[in-house]
Write a structure and sequence with these properties.
561 residues, Alkaline Phosphatase, subunit A, 3 domains, four-stranded antiparallel beta sheet, 16% strand
Length: 561
């Protein structure tokens, strides 16, 4: 077993070497440059859907989403066409902080997505984006720590809520708020590291992901929505956030002593390729989805309410919207459910999407309330048919094939919870923004042109599979490029470096290639079985008001439609 050592993990949400390496070579990110020079680094592959919820839980547990049970920030409610928001209490695999705490290690955890409610670890924990309210119940453990931190360090920000500023055209204010948020995060982390004992400390900076979502087109001259005005005003916005996080890393390294340091991301980043928004129109062209043609009074009423709702959403502050939701607690859920699947004729539909995720669901009998497809042979044949035809789809503008590959869910996930995954996952080409879809197959009902007039989304940046991993420590090889690893490999590697056994339940492996050979020989890893599935004390369902707050965060970040 490895010798006991301290481990510091700094998460930089959505960080990519595509941006870091040029800035490092220009001398603009000195802390990251020092880590790259003094340690090992490589590409860190995300979960198949590159969603932050599934990826951060896979990082923490060393298991794939089919085992830990979280694929997105929300999940379908089977028997309905609705979804429910998830949080850390729905996780079904133990996290590294659970193992470390149970072994008597001192643990500190800050701002990891899907960590609400804060767990009773041997140390302290501040919940992440899935926490509905700063300083509310479940925000921090132990609860008594809240008053001390607030009185000494001032207020804390979980998620700054910049979508409203972006919608209102206040992009400068949005960048300033992101910079302020990460300064607060650094101040809290530095204080906690300096005033409390820790063997394992984890902090996640998320502004990198937010700024990439909203400012990618301003930085990227190849983006179809790029303008010279946008570049001159906001082209350096993403760099400013990376620079702020680099400064934070420098400060935290000064407090880390001889700890092994991981700097990692849950996924990478690039432009938003926009494929998901065209899936339902394509399905309609293929005769697999049908839109309702009835314009009855109920639909007219829903449209009117939707228009009013979206007017309020765009024009009013978050505080006013939260007051309104208290007066009309069920309206938001009904409007959102109607918006996502607006005008779908379910009895005539076989396959559908939500328009925001790269996934397809079969309208399955026994699972969906108006299912049309029989489980078994018909289900399997339909999935094969959809996958085969997806690979033939081309972009309406350049004629290039748009789908790299489509997968059945059991091809990319495994474990007790695969049934929660979408039936089909679509992996798009990633070298151009998709303008619309066309199919040359004769089954297409109205020619071959499909949906190309959709308004550009607010989010111009998207996720990519390849994130980053940089590791430096007393027993880590220097200036070593280890190539590729998977995000599930970090958890067993961290436990090994803490001198703890690695559970056989974990799907990941210890990254032996980054560890000095002599140390590995002297400290061979120890493994132990985990026979039972982990379950938190209880699943923490959100209240109506809490659901609204979570929706505000996820809607603005492009995680839900």
């Amino acid at each position: 077993m490895a010798k006991t050592g301290k481990v510091l993990i700094i998460g930089v949400d959505g960080a990519t070497f595509d941006l870091i390496e040029p800035w490092v070579s220009e001398g603009k990110l000195p802390a990251l440059a020092g880590l790259l020079e003094g340690g090992a680094h490589g590409i860190l592959r995300s979960t198949p859907n590159t969603n932050s919820a599934s990826a951060w839980v896979s990082f923490a547990t060393g298991t794939n989403p089919g085992k830990h049970g979280i694929f997105y920030f929300d999940e379908p409610v089977f028997g309905t066409y609705q979804r429910r928001y998830l949080n850390g209490s729905f996780r079904r695999s133990k996290a590294i902080w659970n193992y470390a705490s149970e072994s008597g290690k001192n643990v500190g955890v800050m701002n990891v997505p899907m960590s609400y409610p804060a767990e009773p670890v041997n140390g302290f924990m501040i919940a992440g984006i899935d926490c509905p309210e700063t300083w509310g119940k479940g925000f921090i453990h132990p609860p008594r720590l809240a008053q001390r931190l607030r009185s000494i360090l001032g207020d804390y920000v979980i998620e700054p809520g910049i979508p409203g500023l972006i919608k209102a055209g206040k992009k400068d204010a949005a960048v300033d708020l992101l910079l302020k948020t990460e300064e607060i995060r650094k101040r809290y982390a530095k204080y906690l590291m300096s005033h409390f004992p820790w063997d394992l400390f984890i902090v996640v900076f998320r502004a990198s992901d937010a700024v990439q979502h909203f400012f990618w087109k301003d930085m990227d001259p190849t983006h179809p929505e790029h303008t010279e005005e946008g570049f001159s005003r906001y082209g350096d916005s993403i760099f400013k956030i990376y620079q702020k996080i680099d400064c934070a890393i420098s400060d935290l390294l000064n407090s880390a002593g001889d700890a092994t340091v991981f700097v990692m991301s849950d996924h990478g980043a690039d432009f938003n390729q926009r494929g998901a928004e065209y899936l339902n129109p394509w399905l309609a062209e293929m005769g697999l989805l049908k839109y309702s043609e009835n314009q009855n009074w109920r639909e007219i009423f829903i449209r009117t309410i939707q228009a009013l709702y979206h007017f309020i959403d765009k024009r009013f502050s978050r505080e006013i919207k939260l007051r309104l939701i208290k007066l009309l607690p069920r309206m938001r859920e009904k409007v959102e459910a109607a918006s996502v699947y607006q005008h779908i004729d379910w009895p005539a539909t076989k396959v559908y999407s939500d328009g925001a995720r790269d996934e397809l669901w079969i309208n399955l009998k026994g699972r969906e309330p108006k299912g049309t497809v029989q489980p078994g042979e018909e289900y399997d044949r339909l999935r094969d048919f959809v996958i085969e035809n997806l690979t033939k789809v081309k972009d309406i503008r350049n004629g290039e094939q748009v789908v790299r590959k489509a997968y059945r869910r059991e091809e990319i996930y495994y474990g007790k919870h695969v049934h929660k995954a979408p039936d089909i996952f679509v992996e798009w080409r990633q070298d151009f923004v998709i303008s619309g879809l066309k199919s040359t197959d004769s089954i297409a009902r109205s020619g071959y042109k499909v949906c190309s007039s959709s308004k550009p989304p607010l989010v111009s940046g998207g996720h990519r599979k390849n994130g980053i991993a940089i590791i430096r420590g007393p027993h880590i090889k220097r200036t070593h490029d280890f190539g590729h690893a998977d995000i599930i490999d970090l958890a067993p590697t961290i436990l090994y470096l803490l001198g703890l056994p690695v559970p056989k339940e974990m799907d990941g492996r210890i990254l032996q290639e980054v560890i000095e050979e002599e140390y590995w020989k002297e400290h061979p890893p120890v493994y132990h079985p985990i026979d039972t599935e982990y379950k938190s004390l209880s699943e923490e369902e959100y209240s109506q008001e809490e659901r609204k707050k979570i929706w505000e965060k996820l809607k603005g970040m492009g995680y839900i439609d």
